Amino acid sequence: MGKFIAALLGVVSGFVIAHVLNETPEGRTFFARSRATIRTFTRGVQDAYRS
Questions:
Q1: What is the DSSP letter of 12?
Q2: Which pTM value belongs to this model?
Q3: Which of 2, 12, 31, 38 is most deeply packed, by most CB within 10 A?
Q4: pLDDT beyond 90 at 51
Q5: DSSP H or E segment with residue 1
Q6: Residue 37 in contact with residue 46, Cβ under 8 Å?
Q7: Which residues, including other chains, have CB under 8 Å from residue 22's CB and lie 6 or more apart?
Q8: CA angle 4-16-5, nearest 5°?
Q9: What span, in angstroms and rounded, lies between the C-alpha atoms of 39 and 33?
Q10: Contacts with 21 (C-beta within 8 Å, 6 or more apart), sequence order
Q11: Distance between CA atoms of 37 and 44, rounded to whole angstroms?
Q12: Residue 22 contacts residue 28 (beta carbons within 8 Å)
């Protein structure tokens, strides 16, 4: 039970930190680049799977 609570606190604190970071211009830029990188990777995997 203790490990579950620790994991839950980790997830919640991650969301809180991401929310606070996203309120800054640098944070928005970071998340925009991250989304673009993930999107590019996902498209590459999809294209490789289709061919």
A1: H
A2: 0.68
A3: 31
A4: no
A5: none
A6: no
A7: 28, 31
A8: 10
A9: 10
A10: 27, 30, 31
A11: 11
A12: yes
Residue 22: band (very low, low, confident or very high) from pLDDT cuts 50, 70, 90: very high
d(CA 17, CA 45): 30
User: To 10 degrees, the CA torsion angle through 33, 6, 8, 30?
Assistant: -10
- Rounded distance, CA 39 to CA 17, Å? 23
Contact between 15 and 9 (Cβ < 8 Å):
no
Count of other CB atoms within 10 angstroms of residue 25: 7
Closest CA to 31 of 16, 14, 19, 43: 19
Per-residue tokens: 23: 């309120």
